[in-house]
Task: inverse folding
């Protein structure tokens, strides 16, 4: 809600809930594979009206759509950046590449790609529409870089691996995912 980024709006009917969620569409032109996965997350959120446990599945599917988008947009760039970094380091130390370095180059994590958005693609809090709408103290950059705990990558890992301690939904998560995907494909 504007001025209250951690608040939960209330809905009196299924139609209001559905309408609210369906307005969180991705921009036109985003690859079908990403938009279809995001729409699946929206559907799970809509169905959470009937069974609230489905919202956690919707969160996980939404984060999966974000990871897919980040791999598509930044995966190759991060791979090239890492290759250059380890090659320069090995050259400075006059040694061949180590096995662990080769593995690191080829295996960027979700957390790495989230940081890439900030550190190499220039994402700032002021560019996130959710922050513009909610105002202070809304901030997402820490969720991407890991300076805010739990980070977005940790939230995804907790959902994927069944950590039982965070049963409540994450306020604004689907909207944030939408904003980050739209930014990546701007």
Result:
């Amino acid at each position: 809600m504007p001025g209250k980024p951690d608040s939960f709006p209330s809905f009196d009917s299924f139609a209001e809930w559905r309408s609210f969620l369906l307005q969180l569409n991705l921009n036109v032109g985003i690859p079908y594979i990403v938009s279809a996965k995001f729409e699946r997350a929206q559907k799970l959120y809509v169905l959470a009206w009937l069974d609230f446990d489905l919202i956690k599945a919707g969160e996980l599917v939404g984060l999966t759509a974000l990871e897919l988008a980040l791999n598509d947009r930044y995966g190759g760039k991060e791979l090239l950046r890492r290759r250059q970094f380890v090659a320069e380091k090995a050259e400075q130390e006059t040694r061949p590449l180590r096995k662990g370095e080769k593995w690191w180059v080829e295996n960027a994590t979700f957390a790495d790609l989230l940081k890439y958005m900030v550190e190499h693609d220039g994402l700032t809090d002021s560019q996130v529409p959710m922050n513009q709408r909610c105002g202070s103290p809304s901030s997402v950059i820490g969720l991407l870089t890991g300076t805010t705990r739990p980070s977005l990558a940790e939230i995804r890992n907790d959902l994927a691996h069944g950590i039982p301690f965070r049963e409540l939904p994450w306020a604004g998560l689907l909207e944030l995912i939408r904003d980050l995907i739209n930014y990546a494909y701007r």
The first helix runs from residue 14 to 22. The chain has a mean pLDDT of 91.
